[in-house]
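Q: Two folds, back to back.
A: First:
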Amino acid sequence: MAKQSFEEAMARLEKITRELEAGDLSLELSLKKFDEGVKLAGFCNQRLGEAESKVALLLDRNGVPGPQFLSPAATETETDPEQ
């Protein structure tokens, strides 16, 4: 895969998705497009993970608390007035 930006990869992935959803491709071409889409999705997921790590690092460096991830049960307990 040539060096590309996250935005370019997402645009290509969206195009592939539309083509596959249309159902007009041969099975062989559909498999090729699907394979390319899986690779693009992996690339995008990796880039998002890197960006998330950088944001967390920057927040921590500036003395701002990092993101807090709560389980659904913890969120319900905090927002449920009956508990």
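A: Second:
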Amino acid sequence: MKKTILPLLLILVIQPCFSQDHSESDGDLILPYQKIPDYPMDYNPGNILSRLVDGLGYRYYWASEGLTAKDLEYKPSEDARNTRETLEHIYSLSSAILNATENEPNVRPEGEADFTLATLREMTLNNLELASNAYANKSAEEISQMKVIFKSGEKVFEFPFWNMINGQISDAIYHTGQIVSFRRASGNPVNPKVNVFLGETAN
């Protein structure tokens, strides 16, 4: 009898944990970076990079949360990207941030992908979370082996990881700030309870 009860108790305890990790009460997927993860205790190079990406992820989560069709169409001038196009650009940057962790080349996709806003957010945030986890605890030597690689046809262009920091990571933060500005201009500002310093959003 005891042998039967113990596995049942383990199932009852473990099952809710998996449910809470992957879905909300209404069945929707929980996206990363609703709040910033706990910070690591060690200030090693990989953890600093990881934390930088986490800060981007938290900002992006709330910048892109609750956008309307009107917000997505907004652009400050005729020559500028609209909000939707800016989100697509941030997604491509997030892919490059992740690709660098495995020295995968960045290849421009053929044609335009027609993702829903929900899918675009999910893919971008998942890329950032995977990249943050991959950077965590990496040594300076390990980071120096990461490359920023572009492939165009038969041509391959390779750059040191320094270019990722001042390139795609900084660029993604910059464009996330644009989303915040654009949605304010289109009448739908970011939740005022977002606190980027603490990485938490008050209820």
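Q: And?
A: Residues 1-30 form one domain.
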